[in-house]
Design a protein that fits this description.
single chain, about 230 residues, alpha+beta, Cyclic Phosphodiesterase, Chain: A, five-stranded antiparallel β-sheet, 5 helices, about 30% strand
């Protein structure tokens, strides 16, 4: 199974598992969302969907807010697709612990022969504690970028934790996290089902962002380190 097929199967299985967890009451509520003392930070390479796609995602979130306004909904400024978590968020990590220029140079070297590509945002899926927009790839370029970065960092002496939590192979975007028990499970599931194949649009990716970030990629806690153009 190639990475594109693997992602499609993961989306399908995650939706059914996520719905089963909701129905049984075994879904996860994030204990950190309401904390004022969350010190988890890391370094990530991101894709930012365009304004038109963001607008359609916010329209979807508005419909979920009607069902339950108490969940954590990502604002348009924070919506992203993670290309790679270079340093996965961990408590106490600070930018002063590394030399950002070294990371910028290494990423730039990795991306030298990487071309633009497209992501079709179509449908939604679930994790145990979140709602995700499905990102569908039409070619293997994103996987090529990830493999190039993995090889470059693993051959370097820079601090990184690539693939230590899990190996990323999808192009999804997390847009809701559960911070309280959901008020109306059946209505929530019905809305997810309604949008499970909904088209949010296609984004042409020609730019990536390297950021210092908190766990949720909140705009006021993100420090942009560099933007990279794909040639």
């Amino acid at each position: 199974m190639n990475p594109i097929q693997q992602a499609e199967e993961w989306y399908r299985q995650s939706l059914e598992t996520g719905i089963s967890l909701l129905e049984s009451g075994n879904y996860s509520v994030d204990p950190y969302l309401l904390s004022k003392h969350d010190t988890r930070y890391g370094i990530s390479l991101l894709i930012r969907p365009g304004a038109a796609i963001n607008s359609k995602i916010q329209d979807f979130l508005d419909q979920l807010r009607i069902i339950d306004p108490n969940q954590y909904y990502y604002p348009g400024s924070d919506i992203h697709v993670t290309v790679l978590s270079i340093i996965s968020c961990f408590p106490g990590f600070q930018l002063t612990q590394i030399h950002p220029e070294d990371y910028i140079q290494l990423v730039a070297n990795s991306l030298k022969n990487c071309s633009p590509f497209s992501i079709e945002f179509r449908g939604v899926t679930l994790s145990s504690g979140a709602v995700l927009i499905r990102g569908h790839l039409v070619d293997d370029q994103l996987n090529h970028i990830r493999e190039s970065l993995r090889t470059t960092f693993k051959n370097s002496r820079l601090l990184h934790s690539i693939d230590e939590r899990y190996t990323i192979f999808t192009a999804h975007s997390t847009v809701v996290r559960y911070q309280y028990p959901i008020e109306n499970i059946s209505a929530w599931i019905n809305k997810i089902r309604e949008f499970q194949n909904h088209s949010f649009g296609t984004h042409s990716v020609n730019q990536l962002e390297l950021v210092f970030n908190d766990w949720y990629q909140r705009k006021d806690k993100v420090n942009l380190l560099n933007r990279f153009k794909l040639s």
